[in-house]
Specification:
This protein is mainly α and about 180 residues long. It has 2 domains: about 90 residues, RNA polymerase sigma factor, region 2, helix turn helix motif (Rna Polymerase Sigma Factor, Chain: A), CATH 1.10.1740; about 80 residues, Winged helix-like DNA-binding domain superfamily/Winged helix DNA-binding domain (Arc Repressor Mutant, subunit A, Orthogonal Bundle), CATH 1.10.10.10. It contains 10 helices and no strands. Helix 3 crosses helix 4.
């Protein structure tokens, strides 16, 4: 079977066979399409290890969800490539919350080393007084976003909180600062 190409396999029939538990058909699909699917995933995730993860996950999904394939909606090959594409996009979305942040800078800010920024401001400075009123996680998120330039996703990933929480903290903190400074 090695050396098979996508043209050598009837994708729809092989997917239906997978739905019936035929592992040989899954192997035929893998040998025919894994290399091309890896290329598609690699163009999306831009890292070989993540692309390989996407292809692996895609074949698991193909095996588990073969019974959901409907040839009336499109070809088997198209269905397979949609799965790997979606898996790769999910990996990108998941990873956009991390990996782009310089660990030292982030730890310094999140650890409170930027509190000295507040101490350098005059004690009667309105901005200092308003920033000190914010809860530490909200103040940290605000400083990371507006002073250090980290994205909301990077902040969420490193603080281990949902993206929506970080966005809410920053939005509410800006509103609180505006009200405090008025």
């Amino acid at each position: 079977m090695s050396g098979m190409t996508g043209r050598d396999v009837d994708h729809s029939a092989a997917i239906r066979a997978c739905a019936a538990g035929d592992e040989v058909s899954l192997r035929a699909l893998y040998e025919a399409e894994a290399a091309t699917m890896l290329g598609v995933a690699l163009r999306i995730v831009r890292r070989r290890d993540l692309a390989e993860e996407a292809v692996h996950d895609a074949f698991l999904q193909i095996w588990r969800k073969a019974h959901q394939f409907d040839a009336k909606l499109g070809s088997g090959r198209t269905w397979m490539f949609a799965i790997v594409r979606n898996r790769a996009l999910n990996i990108v979305r998941d990873r956009s919350r991390e990996d782009l942040v310089d660990d030292e800078t982030f730890e310094a800010v999140a650890g409170g080393e930027h509190d000295d920024m507040l101490l350098r401001m005059p004690e009667r400075d309105a901005l200092r007084l308003c920033l000190e009123r914010l809860e530490k996680p909200r103040r940290t998120s605000l400083i990371l976003a507006y002073v250090e330039g980290f994205s909301h996703g990077e902040i969420a990933g490193r603080l281990g909180v949902p993206l929506g929480t970080v966005k809410a903290w920053i939005r509410r903190s800006l509103i609180a600062l505006k009200e405090c400074m008025a």
